[in-house]
């Protein structure tokens, strides 16, 4: 029995909401968005035909409120709801509530969500279905002592995983019995905060595994297929950083074996819709990890190699139609790679960043490149939600071409206002081991020195471009200040004029702790800049968007310099560099340092205080735990000392840089 969908409500936000609406509109459907107070002006709201408010910014008061979403569906006349990923996408109660309200849930039945929603129960089901499993404990008894004994039985290292979730939340690698109690408590807190369920499972931690997942699809007529596989091995803190399809080195025989196991897993729970069966592989063996009963973040790479629109498949299956293709008819063409551009600071242990995107350029225009995003330049990355800015997806005739296009796409990406992982992603894309497809889940740890090198001083090219940008801006301002009644006034045409001397201007830049003096000598066609490395002839034109067409000692190049206050961000040759302009016209340029202070690494909530006032602590001891974006960040003692004053209590909200406590010498 088929039921035509006419109005689709997307119960999500950000890039996935925008992406789902794109396909829905292509199919002629009316689209409805929901939004929290923080998202009133978000891109997904602007992309919908209608949008309804559902509550305050915190997700638990808006995007996780089943009643508010169903009320919006009723008011808008929506006959179907697409949950996207995250939030309520794997919530069986939500799927049931939609069914009871007479609304089509564009996803699997509640029974399948429930069966796979508990990692422990899912593994028991898979064992019965003959799907291979990693050795571990998946039981209901959550006594800490029992879990510790099971970890000893399995053998360290072990992996603690939240039973009800994914995305790296509630996941801890434990390498010894001594570490286990604290790691367990932290995993349980994260799991409770992210999923409302603190149950965990314990598994053997494989040392050099690959993470390979299989995209499955099933309809309500008993048909089930797999749309090949994705390699998601490059991870950080168990969160995927790079995803690609097909998996490098995959043979047709192994693809068929993993595909069959994935389809068997889906059939074991009466699955309908899009799902992903995740495996961990080492050597010749592969093991079931979990099944995600939703569309995955990385689904675009599968769309690229198959030429299929997976959201369109979801909608057709939800309407009761047969799968669009049989197994033998599913194409596999070329290679695709996806990276996730995040607002996070690699130099500060990848701390998530919040704030305004002052400048955002994404590589929509490049051949073989797709960008999925939910933000625009000027938008704000909020503390309340995942800090992903965009997904950048490239495709090519083969992996070599896709890797080249990934490098080009990242080189063309520009973000100012927040620290991002762009340079880190580009370091992965250009690393020889990545080019050689030497992939496993330890890739980042193994190549950390190359991927996260210490900051280097800016070179003369960057300084020359920064100076040219300032000089062009000063010239424009001078021209605007000239009396319009006397456009030929020499006072508006004599920058840097000196009586009986060479016309010049002195500029000062700061590069972290280093101050750099640059003298610009004016010439008819440009400038001679005195730089740390010697003199350089510089000329060029600047556009309103910060683009520079420059010649440096005769070498022509294009760059962009974006100024925000005193800070200049220089984008050139695929790199990005920051310098401060010390403007002598400002009375002062105070800098506030945090050296030696115990401050909040980012805005968040105090969830644990591990010490008391007057307590003596050793260097490295945990002092305060701050939770932000569903992740925990521990502030540790930088030296031996005594806690003099605690500034906050558990449950308090803190801003980035807020002093948490005072530590004095013991």
Automatic annotation (TrEMBL):
PROSITE patterns according to UniProt: ATP_GRASP, BC, BIOTINYL_LIPOYL, CPSASE_1, CPSASE_2, PUA
Entry keywords, A to Z: ATP-binding, Biotin, Ligase, Nucleotide-binding
CDD domains membership: biotinyl_domain
Superkingdom, taxonomy of origin: Bacteria
ATP-grasp domain segment(s): 123-319
Necessary cofactors: biotin
SMART domains: Biotin_carb_C, GARS_A
Domain Biotin carboxylation residue range list: 4-449
Name assigned to this protein: Acetyl/propionyl/methylcrotonyl-CoA carboxylase subunit alpha
């Amino acid at each position: 029995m088929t039921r035509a969908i006419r109005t689709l409500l997307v119960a999500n936000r950000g890039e996935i909401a925008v992406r789902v609406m794109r396909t829905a509109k292509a199919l002629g459907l009316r689209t409805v968005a929901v939004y929290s107070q923080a998202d009133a002006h978000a891109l997904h709201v602007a992309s919908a035909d209608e949008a309804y408010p559902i509550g305050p910014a915190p997700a638990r008061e808006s995007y996780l409120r089943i009643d508010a979403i169903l009320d919006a569906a009723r008011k808008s006349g929506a006959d179907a709801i697409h949950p996207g990923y995250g939030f309520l996408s794997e919530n069986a109660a939500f799927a049931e509530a939609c069914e009871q309200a007479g609304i089509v849930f564009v996803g699997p039945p509640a029974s399948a969500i429930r069966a796979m929603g508990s990692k422990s129960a899912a593994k028991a089901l898979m064992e019965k279905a003959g799907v291979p499993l990693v050795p571990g404990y998946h039981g209901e008894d959550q006594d800490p002592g029992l879990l510790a004994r099971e970890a000893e039985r399995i053998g360290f290292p072990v992996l603690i995983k939240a039973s009800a979730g994914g995305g790296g939340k509630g996941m801890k690698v434990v390498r010894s019995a001594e570490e286990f109690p604290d790691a367990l408590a932290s995993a349980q807190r994260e799991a409770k905060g992210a999923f409302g369920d603190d149950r965990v499972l314990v598994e053997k931690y494989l040392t050099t595994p690959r993470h390979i997942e299989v995209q499955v699809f099933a309809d309500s007529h008993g048909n089930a297929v797999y749309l090949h596989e994705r390699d998601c091995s490059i991870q950080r803190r168990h969160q995927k950083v790079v995803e690609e399809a097909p998996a490098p080195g995959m043979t047709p025989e192994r693809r068929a074996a993993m595909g069959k196991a994935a389809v068997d897993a889906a059939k074991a729970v009466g699955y309908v819709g899009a799902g992903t069966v995740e495996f961990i592989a080492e050597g010749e063996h592969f093991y079931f990890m979990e099944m995600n009963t939703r569309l995955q973040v990385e689904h675009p790479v599968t769309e690229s190699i198959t030429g299929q629109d997976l959201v369109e498949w979801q909608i057709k299956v939800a309407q009761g139609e047969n799968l669009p293709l049989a197994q033998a008819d599913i194409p596999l063409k070329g290679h695709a790679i996806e990276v996730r551009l995040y607002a996070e600071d690699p130099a500060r242990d990848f701390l998530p960043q919040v704030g305004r995107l002052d400048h955002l350029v994404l590589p929509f225009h490049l051949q073989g490149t797709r960008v999925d995003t939910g933000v625009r330049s000027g938008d704000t990355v909020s503390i309340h939600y995942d800090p992903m800015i965009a997904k950048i997806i490239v495709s090519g005739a083969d992996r070599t071409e896709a890797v080249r296009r990934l490098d080009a796409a990242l080189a063309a990406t520009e973000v100012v206002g927040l620290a991002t992982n762009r340079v880190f992603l580009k370091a992965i894309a250009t690393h020889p081991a990545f080019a050689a497809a030497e992939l496993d889940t330890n890739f980042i740890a193994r190549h950390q020195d190359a991927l996260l090198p210490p900051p280097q001083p800016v070179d003369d090219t960057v300084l020359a471009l920064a100076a040219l940008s300032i000089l062009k801006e000063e010239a424009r301002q001078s021209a605007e200040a000239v009396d319009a009644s006397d456009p030929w006034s020499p006072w508006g045409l004599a920058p840097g004029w000196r009586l009986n001397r060479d016309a010049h201007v002195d500029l000062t830049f700061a590069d972290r702790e280093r101050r750099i003096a640059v003298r610009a000598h004016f010439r008819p066609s440009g400038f001679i800049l005195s730089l740390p490395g010697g003199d350089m002839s510089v000329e060029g034109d600047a556009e309103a968007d910060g683009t520079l067409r420059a010649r440096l000692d005769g070498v022509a190049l294009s760059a962009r310099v974006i100024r925000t206050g005193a800070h200049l961000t220089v984008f050139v040759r695929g790199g990005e560099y920051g310098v401060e302009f010390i403007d002598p016209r400002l009375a002062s340029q105070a800098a506030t340092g945090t050296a030696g202070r115990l401050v909040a690494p980012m805005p968040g909530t105090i969830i644990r205080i591990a010490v008391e006032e007057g307590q003596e602590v050793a260097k490295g001891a945990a002092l305060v735990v701050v939770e932000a974006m569903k992740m925990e960040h521990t502030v540790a003692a930088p030296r031996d000392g005594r806690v003099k004053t605690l500034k906050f209590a558990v449950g308090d909200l803190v801003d980035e840089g807020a002093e948490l406590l005072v530590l004095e010498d013991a």
